[in-house]
Amino acid sequence: MVSHKLYVSNIKHSMTARDLRDLFTGFGEIKEVQIIRGRGSGFVTFATLEQAELAQKSLSGREFEGKTLHIEKAHPTTQTKK
Fold first, then answer.
1. pTM of the prediction?
2. Would residue 54 count as lying in a domain?
């Protein structure tokens, strides 16, 4: 399964989901935005792979509010049985 979800790190801890959505909105239809509180990171899910790739190429390594954005394709988490 191909993921349209991006992992965004090195953002300000004060950034909200709305702020993150606004940053990515010009690259296509956003399905979901999540902020990981206290970590300075979050996830942005696009409607298509092409939109996600365009956003990644355009924003990764760019400075935003004094921080250099790091953007990668999100990998599904795996849970192990105990």
1. 0.85
2. yes
